[in-house]
Specification:
The chain is an all-alpha fold. The chain contains 5 helices and no strands. Helix 1 crosses helix 4 (78-94) and helix 3 (47-69) packs across helix 4.
């Protein structure tokens, strides 16, 4: 995670989820190695939801990055990006995604 914006989003999301911020990816982390290690610190009953959160964070960071590269006008700051992530999770929960609801509260 070389991008400061991305690290701030991860940090903000973990704070919002009450997950130990020491589990946030660092600038030395690769997403696959980090994810594999981090999810082992999450109770098994919460891992499916945790995985959904990770996917939502990655998806929204990718969209923000592309928006900056291609000059879109709907860019968000860290707080706005975190809000979009939670909107996605709430929508997934309403659609029946299991394990997500606990992180949306």
């Amino acid at each position: 995670m070389q991008c400061v914006f991305a690290r701030q989003v991860w940090y903000s999301c973990f704070l919002r989820m009450n997950i130990n911020i020491d589990l946030c990816p660092t600038h030395h982390s690769t997403i696959d190695a980090w994810w594999d290690a981090a999810r082992k610190h999450v109770p098994k009953r919460l891992r499916k939801g945790f995985d959904s959160v990770v996917i939502s964070i990655c998806w929204n960071l990718w969209k923000q990055c592309n928006g900056r590269v291609f000059g879109r006008n709907d860019l968000r700051n860290v707080g706005g990006t975190v809000d979009l992530i939670w909107q996605d999770l709430a929508m997934w929960s309403r659609a029946g995604a299991t394990g997500v609801t606990i992180w949306c509260e």
